[in-house]
Amino acid sequence: MLEIHLTGHQLTFSGELDCHTVVAHWPFKLLEKLPAVAEFDLAGLQHVDTAGLAWLLQQLAQANQRGIKVSLLNMPQQLQSLATVSDVLPLLPVR
After folding, report:
1. Each residue of 1-11: pLDDT tens digit?
2. pLDDT per residue over 24-70, tens digit each?
3. Which residues contact 21 (CB under 8 A, 6 or more apart)?
4. How much is the pLDDT for 95?
């Protein structure tokens, strides 16, 4: 299960970001509610797979197209390792 909550300018992610959970968040309507500067707090993610990483990259691209500057907070080690192996770590706006 993946839960995403919006509080002010921050989206808080918890649960699993994987091929089974991202389909429930497509299209990702919460992007429409974000201000021009936003944060994705990833501390609550317990599992991420390549589909979850691809979904996250897609949301970052969509946010960029909308003029939203997103920072990623508390990126789990598993996500960082997956992004490194996939050679996309430089694309993630980690703060």
Report:
1. 999 999 999 99
2. 998 999 999 999 999 999 999 999 999 999 999 999 999 999 999 99
3. 1, 2, 15, 52
4. 87
Burial class (CB in 10 A: 0-12, 13-18, 19+), 24: exposed
Residue 15: how many other CB atoms lie within 10 Å: 14
11: number of Cβ within 10 Å: 22
Neighbours of 84 (CB within 10 A): 11
User: pTM of the predicted model, to two decimals?
Assistant: 0.95
Q: What type of residue sits at position 73?
A: L
> By C-alpha distance, which of 93, 52, 91, 89 is closest to 69?
93
Domains along the chain with CATH numbers: 2-91 (3.30.750.24)
* CA distance linking residue 15 with residue 48, whole number of Å: 9
Structure tokens at 57: 């990259």
